[in-house]
Automatic annotation (TrEMBL):
Keywords: Lyase, Manganese, Metal-binding, NAD. This is Malolactic enzyme. GO terms for molecular function: malic enzyme activity; malolactic enzyme activity; manganese ion binding; NAD binding; oxidoreductase activity, acting on the CH-OH group of donors, NAD or NADP as acceptor. Divalent metal cations. Prefers magnesium or manganese. Its EC number is 4.1.1.101. It comes from Lacticaseibacillus manihotivorans DSM 13343 = JCM 12514. Residues 261-517 form the Malic enzyme NAD-binding domain. Homodimer. It catalyses: (S)-malate + H(+) = (S)-lactate + CO2.
Amino acid sequence: MKYTAQQLLHDPFLNKGTAFTQAERDAYGLNGLLPSAIQSLSQQVKQAYAQYESKNDNLQKRLFLMQLFNTNHVLYYKLFSEHIAEFMPVVYDPTIADTIENYSALFVEPQNATYLSIDAQDDIESALRRSANGRDIRLLVVTDAEGILGIGDWGTQGVDIAVGKLMVYTAAAGIDPSQVLPVVLDAGTNNQELLNDDLYLGNRHERVYGDKYHAFVDKFVATAEKLFPRLYLHFEDFGRANAADILDQYKNQITTFNDDIQGTGIIVLAGMLGALNISKQKMTDQVYMSFGAGTAGAGIAARVYEEYLQQGMAPEDAKKHFYLVDKQGLLFDDDPTLTPAQKVFARSRSEFENANELTSLEAAVKAIHPDVLVGTSTQPGTFTESIVKEMAAHTERPIIFPLSNPTKLAEAKAEDLIKWTDGKALVATGIPAAPVEYNGVTYEIGQANNALVYPGLGLGTIAATSKLLSDDMISAAAHSLGGIVDPELAGAAVLPPVTKLDQFSKTVALAVANQAVKDGLNVDDIKDVEKAVSDMQWAPEYQPLNIEMAD
Ligand SMILES: NC(=O)c1ccc[n+]([C@@H]2O[C@H](COP(=O)([O-])OP(=O)(O)OC[C@H]3O[C@@H](n4cnc5c(N)ncnc54)[C@H](O)[C@@H]3O)[C@@H](O)[C@H]2O)c1
Ligand SMILES: O=C(O)C[C@H](O)C(=O)O
Ligand SMILES: [Mn+2]
């Protein structure tokens, strides 16, 4: 394609703004189209950061960063890379929840995303092709936004989660932003607030389910695979009724990943391994309870269960360590409403004298005395003081992970968990949490958010040109996060800190890529895994432009 000077200035993949050199200004006809001073990238970063800091709240900060992203990708990612822990809660969860809820009202521009409608399926191919605009797409994040974080159905507004997750891929793992595509599948919405909102930008009808929905997803997947044959396809925030089915349908055919099921499974397993490093206990001795057994809750249980098997436990014995609690209480095998993923761990009523009374978390904790309690229920404040104290009365170092996002939905606050258990609880939270000072010890709180692993997992899988994302690769990712935190330090976190996200994303990528090659899943011949991973990484630095001008 040939560029005009105006197109160059408005293409965020190529634009350098005030950093265009004099030679470039001469070559591309930019003289007089920019202020005359020529800045370095570091001057631009300094200036942008000062603007960022002048914004009053995280939403304003995020809007400013999005404006920067829309204008100049190198500048945006350079700034992000220099402030990764500070920017994560602004670019990503929890602030992203606010921009999703207000997406239509705040709409400025489409951010190179693809908006596919269930009512216009003939457009799927041309829309994907034109969004890619000749770029070599290797990573696509798609959502249908039925289950955005814990805030529910946000229709086309959920596109922001695809955009945001991709930003984290680049900031954390160095995925080239010109090789990614965010996609929203607009199958309607059951969110009445959106349907009644004049400004709502999506399809104004109820969400479509059943055959028509599945045909839509299938057509999208087939088209994306055809257009981008080396694709890593990441599914995000689909509803409970579809997420696991879609994963099961494609996982043995294409390189695909469900973040809520698999990514969350990895980070929670890694967090448990970290916690057990601190407590010096054995994984297979732990009694595990999940509160909220939906997409994430059941996905995590499945990953942790696999670990018990890997550690040598027989399936029937391992199953006895798992208890799922959902809306109806402890899940029993005579319940006709169980999802397939829940059925695997459902218990028999005959195991309990008071089975019919186990209809709440409190009753289940009293009856079962779990060692591990993971919250993916979307129900804020449900890990109450009495439940937590009851749990702590029966286990030396309770592992408690309230993971529901965003902040307003968390099952508990880290600070309370530390206090209620007299510093014994090993805690990780879904959103970032400040360290907790208690009795002279500073407790660092790990962030059990899939963002700590999905970037490295994707980088490793893509770099290895793996045909599939296998269970072994997933397990390798979970195990690779060990050894970064010193478990002997008082108050040590169960997971590595977000300040090191870029470093350990590479560790995860290497572990995953090595596993893929070891299992012979690589399409290309890969002699040097480390080189393959490094070669795949993009750095936010201005490069000479290799473009043709229109006149
Ligand atoms: N930290 C992370 O990395 C991470 C990853 C994925 C999901 N999550 C969070 O987990 C939560 C759930 O996400 P999901 O994708 O599994 O959603 P989901 O809708 O698939 O599952 C939620 C489950 O909670 C159950 N539930 C609702 N009310 C309940 C109640 N009163 N008591 C017990 N259970 C109840 C639902 O029946 C459902 O099974 C969200 O808040 C999400 O942000 C966190
Ligand atoms: O998006 C997040 O913060 C994590 C997770 O994928 C979620 O759905 O909550
Ligand atoms: Mn999610």
